[in-house]
Write a structure and sequence with these properties.
The protein is about 40% helix and about 25% strand. The chain is α+β, with helices and mostly antiparallel strands. It folds into two domains: about 240 residues, Bira Bifunctional Protein, Domain 2 (BirA Bifunctional Protein, domain 2); about 80 residues, Anticodon-binding domain (Rossmann fold, 3-Layer(aba) Sandwich), CATH 3.40.50.800. The protein starts with 17 loop residues before the first helix and ends in a 7-residue tail after the last strand.
């Protein structure tokens, strides 16, 4: 009979890999809680309309990458990202009535149908933050600081913060018009995606990774528009304030005018954090401000900003972490007494095991040395005298103590 294998673009996270994942998750809770954020867990599938309205129907995610299915005359989609779901929950549960800022963090699986590659799968995991209710650049600075702080706590220090402002819808219109005017003569040379984006969302032309398109966008007349200053006074002041806050915090950054991010809901601040230890796919964090999304999804007009990080990519940078050993392994050929002692220790919160198959002492000791910090030996003499022999498996030190006085430290 043929073996059923894991589906393409998905991956088992094996027990040997779990220390890295626990480290990422526990660090997220530690760092984000320090900033006053609360964890939220939303369903892994939502109404398809949520992503069409939220992420944007001109994005590759909605057009090409969503896992959508019909059930009882409803269109449902496995979440391709989590900002839209968190915003839906924010609205539905009346969180706008809470004192601002409302800071929410999440972790969990996302789903996109795309070509699997290193650090990118069809089922992948993200950890992220969404902050609601603050329009000032203080929120932008704190969100970027939170991301940098989290990455540093993971031990990732060789990082580059790239920053840009997309302005508001009003000041973007003039830029879009100028951009289309200079690109129009080269339209036949662009990829199919860019030709579609040209009318629907010209800003996203700059997000294209096609070498042929990048060659077109590098032309002097197009670069003159890209490098031009189209931002209105209010948006410009917001961006300058953000840069001043980052300077005050000692966060180094680079301005990248080509940075637009891949989702339609962003305005003003967008940012990416890149690792200098990765290849071309080097972004470990992406985020930005989305002040209109809450209103677009039926809520009250609420400014917001957030970020997401791919956990598979983070795991590849963190490297291996040692598995946590058991505190004790009970070595005994008296199974009844071994069961009893094991449960006594577990009831005190001590992680321990005993040999379920009652192997010879030497085999049990070998297993203990690989899996535990202490071997707790329970032979005939120890049972008769109400004692146990404790062996420190690191130092080799051994001592016999009364069973009711057993301490493992």
């Amino acid at each position: 009979m043929a073996i059923i294998k894991v589906q393409k673009g998905t991956k088992d996270i094996l027990p040997s890999e779990m220390p890295i994942w626990h480290f990422m998750e526990e660090t997220a809770n530690k760092i984000f809680t320090k900033y006053g954020a609360k964890e939220i867990r939303t369903p892994i599938f939502e109404a398809t309309e949520l992503f069409a309205r939220g992420v944007g129907d001109t994005t590759d995610i909605v057009n090409k990458e969503m896992y959508t299915f019909e059930k009882s005359d409803r269109s449902l989609t496995l979440r391709p990202e989590n900002t839209a779901g968190v915003v839906r929950s924010f609205i539905e549960n009346g969180m706008h009535r809470l004192s601002a800022p409302v800071k929410l963090w999440y972790k969990g699986p996302m789903f996109r149908y795309e070509r699997p590659q290193a650090g990118r799968q069809r089922q992948f995991h993200q950890v992220g933050i969404e902050v609601f209710g603050i329009k000032q650049a203080t929120a932008d600075a704190e969100v970027i600081l939170m991301a940098v702080d989290y990455l540093h706590e993971l031990g990732l220090n060789d990082l580059t913060v790239e920053l840009n402002t997309l302005g508001c819808p009003k000041c973007r219109e003039e830029f879009k018009t100028k951009l289309k005017d200079v690109i129009r003569p080269y339209l036949p040379q662009l990829c199919e995606d860019c030709q579609t984006r040209f009318d629907k969302n010209p800003l996203r032309l700059l997000d294209c990774k096609s070498p042929e398109c990048q060659e077109v966008y590098a032309k002097p007349e197009i670069q003159a528009v890209i490098q031009g200053d189209f931002i209105c006074e209010e948006c410009s002041e917001h961006f300058e304030e953000l840069k001043n806050y980052l300077d005050t915090l000692g966060i180094k950054y680079e301005r990248n005018r080509l940075l637009v991010r891949g989702l339609d809901y962003y305005n003003r601040t967008v940012f990416e954090i890149k690792s200098n230890n990765l290849g071309s796919q080097n972004a470990v964090c992406g985020g930005g401000r989305y002040d209109s999304l809450v209103k677009n999804l039926g809520g009250e007009d609420t400014p917001a900003i957030g970020f997401a990080m791919g956990m598979e990519r983070l795991a590849s940078l963190i490297g291996e972490r040692a598995e946590e050993k058991l505190t004790a392994y009970i070595v005994s050929n008296n199974t009844a007494e071994a069961v009893k002692l094991t449960q006594e220790l577990r009831s005190k919160g001590i992680a321990c095991e005993f040999d379920l198959t009652n192997k010879k002492f030497v085999k049990q000791l070998e297993k203990a040395s690989k899996t535990a910090k202490f071997a707790v030996i329970l032979g005939e003499d120890e049972i008769a005298n109400g004692e146990v022999t404790v062996k420190n498996l690191d130092s080799g030190e051994q001592k016999t103590v009364k069973r009711d006085e057993l301490k493992l430290d």
